[in-house]
Amino acid sequence: MKLVFNEINKNFELGVEITCVLGQVSTLMLALANKHESIDDKERLNATYLLSGILLDIASTLDDYAIKDTKVTKEQRK
Question: I need a labelling partner for 56 at 20 to 30 A (CA). Which of 42, 47, 49, 50 fits?
Answer without folding.
Answer: 42
